[in-house]
Specification:
With 149 residues, this protein is α+β, with helices and mostly antiparallel strands. The chain folds into 2 domains: 41 residues, Arc Repressor Mutant, subunit A, CATH 1.10.10; 74 residues, Alpha-Beta Plaits, CATH 3.30.70. 40% of the residues lie in helices and 18% in strands. The chain has a 4-stranded antiparallel beta sheet. Helix 1 packs across helix 2 and helix 2 packs across helix 3. It is elongated and about 55 Å long.
Length: 149
């Protein structure tokens, strides 16, 4: 990957809906080489997909909770059931397995505390969890999908 690839990726992360002509102009190249590089970056797995970012507040999803999960069960069957349950829940935007005292952290976006409780009740009905702590985000200070390239 060279500087031109990095410039192209930066432009795509900023706004993937830009025309090839606009991207080429901004990165100092022409349309065909830019298209070929984008194609190669897709084939190499650097670009995995294109999507649209939505404003959760505009959609009425004003509450963001970080859910800390501790489990006393670490066998493969429990983990498979838990992961399937988490992956199936549309409220879960991110899920991470952690090192340390907390086993998993989930980022959950819902309309309000009542909607979170509905999510919580459904989750614990599906999977036996030792301890759940929910932290309400009071303010989003930084959120980005942009990777430094």
């Amino acid at each position: 990957m060279d500087d031109l690839d990095r410039k192209i990726l930066s432009e795509l992360q900023d706004d993937a809906s830009q025309s090839l002509d606009d991207i080429a102009r901004k990165v100092g190249s022409s349309k065909t080489p830019v298209w070929n590089r984008i194609r190669k970056l897709r084939e190499a797995g650097v670009i995995t997909r294109q999507t649209v970012l939505l404003d959760p507040d505009a959609l009425g999803l004003e509450a963001c909770f970080f859910v800390l999960i501790r489990t006393s069960a670490h066998e493969a069957g429990w983990q498979q059931k838990f992961l399937a349950s988490v992956r199936a829940r549309p409220e879960v935007l991110e899920a991470h397995r952690l090192a340390g005292d907390i086993d998993y952290i989930l980022k959950v976006r819902v309309a309000n505390a009542r909607a979170y409780d509905t999510f919580y009740q459904a989750l614990i009905a599906e999977v036996n969890i030792f301890n759940v702590t929910a932290l309400l985000s009071m303010e989003e200070i930084k959120a980005t999908t942009v990777l430094q390239v």
